[in-house]
Design a protein that fits this description.
With about 400 residues, this protein is mostly helical. Among the domains are: about 5-65, no CATH class; about 225-290, no CATH class. About 75% of the residues lie in helices and about 5% in strands. Helix 12 (about 250-255) packs across helix 14 (about 275-305) and helix 14 (about 275-305) packs across helix 16.
């Protein structure tokens, strides 16, 4: 039954009721009820009845009308749920902000909640509505971290899925090749069998030659996967045009120099080879910036070697590290000089360069903001697996200390 029909039926019932009836009127936007007699209802004019029934119809067809009278309760319940959800998000946000861990670690450990679309939408709205500049910047950084972690997890899942698919395809090809060889072997003559046996004898040598060729393949010869390209999309948007007023390829290369890792350079080079002029300009600007930094590192190394004595050289490196001048070009230059000295048979200079390099890396680690980065750098520098195990054992061994009455700490 339509609402208009329902209103008409209701009006008939009200007008034909015997005895006392209940009529509705709207006064000042509010609904009131009063009793009228049959005679008074019949003596009322048609226009008055229309006005009264219009109030009923207006209520029935309005959004707030509910036959069960539960609309207000439902709205209140929904508001309470939203308030409870917002409170829960505030608590979780506080845990992320005030945690002693790196926020990325907490995001990974609480991945389902941190990367939930409802939470990220809530956090984004909180960023936009914040009026405190420091709070706004901190929340924006956290929001960016969450999106970054989410994207990396998704890319890693894509890479694992692709690797599993390639493995299945390779296994299917191997089985198909074996089946083909079996079918071909059924029709082989004795001479063909002897030739096949000779080929099998030499297969080991060919496999070894192929393995050596694979080992000689450099990093830049390896193929870029779709996941690698996808992982650098956000960085590409930051370093490629359109630029902000005043920015150029040279200024971008200087500002983002530390983010230009070898894999990213490969991505830029691929785009440049495919005719992307913006990527080509950035690669050239990066080469110029790298030359400048290598030249500065060369001057720094000359000043260190001018000290004459190894102890004084190490002291100079300590001072440079505190001044923030021990950068990646300086470390690479020490490594290159050590390799060249070894290739020339000069073991003494080579050992000196390596010792200076180790001291420079150790001092650079001291300037790191977190223990995790220090540990990671130590592990990456160590080639010996036994030494790496010792580093890990020392890092994760609890340090027991006793605080004496004088305030000194005895380990």
């Amino acid at each position: 039954m339509r609402l208009s029909s329902f209103s008409l039926a209701l009006s008939v019932v009200l007008s034909s009721a015997v005895g006392t009836s209940l009529a509705f009127t709207f006064i000042g936007g509010k609904k009131t009820a009063h009793h009228v007699t049959t005679s008074s209802a019949s003596s009322s004019s048609a226009s008055t009845r229309t006005t009264r029934l219009f109030g009923i119809l207006d209520e029935i067809e309005g959004d707030s009308y509910d036959l069960l009278g539960n609309s207000g309760a439902n709205d209140a319940k929904e508001k309470n749920q939203q308030r409870d959800l917002s409170d829960a998000y505030e608590i979780f946000l506080g845990e992320l902000v005030f945690s002693p861990n790196d926020p990325r670690v907490d995001i990974v450990e609480n991945f389902d909640l941190a990367c939930d679309p409802q939470f990220t939408d809530w956090l984004n709205k909180k960023v936009e509505s914040s009026t405190d500049p420091e709070e706004k910047a901190a929340l924006r950084d956290l929001y960016g971290m969450i999106l970054d972690v989410k994207k990396k997890v998704e890319i890693n899942a894509m890479a694992e899925e692709r690797a599993a698919k390639e493995k299945e395809e390779a296994e299917a090809k191997r089985i198909a090749a074996i089946d083909a060889e079996v079918e071909a072997g059924k029709a082989m003559s004795n001479t063909d069998v002897l030739r096949k046996a000779q080929a099998i004898d030499s297969a080991g040598v060919e496999t070894e030659i192929q393995a050596q060729a694979e080992e000689k393949k450099t990093f830049f010869d390896t193929e870029l996967t779709p996941e690698i390209r996808l992982s650098y999309e956000d960085l590409l948007k930051e370093v490629l045009p359109p630029y902000k007023p005043g920015d150029t390829a040279d200024s971008i290369a200087f500002a983002y120099y530390d983010k230009f890792d070898a894999q990213f350079v490969k991505v830029l080079t691929e785009r440049s080879n495919n005719g992307d002029s913006d990527a080509q300009d950035l690669v050239e600007a990066l080469a110029v910036e790298q030359s400048k930094r290598i030249a500065a590192a060369t001057e720094t190394l000359k000043s260190v070697l001018a000290m004459g004595e190894p102890m004084r050289m190490e002291g100079a490196i300590v001072k440079l590290a505190r001044e923030g001048k021990v950068d990646e070009p300086f470390l690479l230059l020490l490594e290159a000089n050590a390799n060249q000295a070894e290739a020339a048979g000069a073991q003494g200079p080579a050992q000196l360069m390596r010792k200076l390099g180790q001291r420079a890396m150790a001092e650079k680690d001291k300037q790191s903001s977190s223990k995790e980065i220090k540990l990671l750098r130590q592990l990456l520098r160590e080639d010996d697996s036994t030494a790496r195990e010792l580093i890990l054992e020392e890092a994760f061994t609890p340090k027991e200390a006793l605080i004496v009455s004088s305030g000194a700490c005895v380990v």
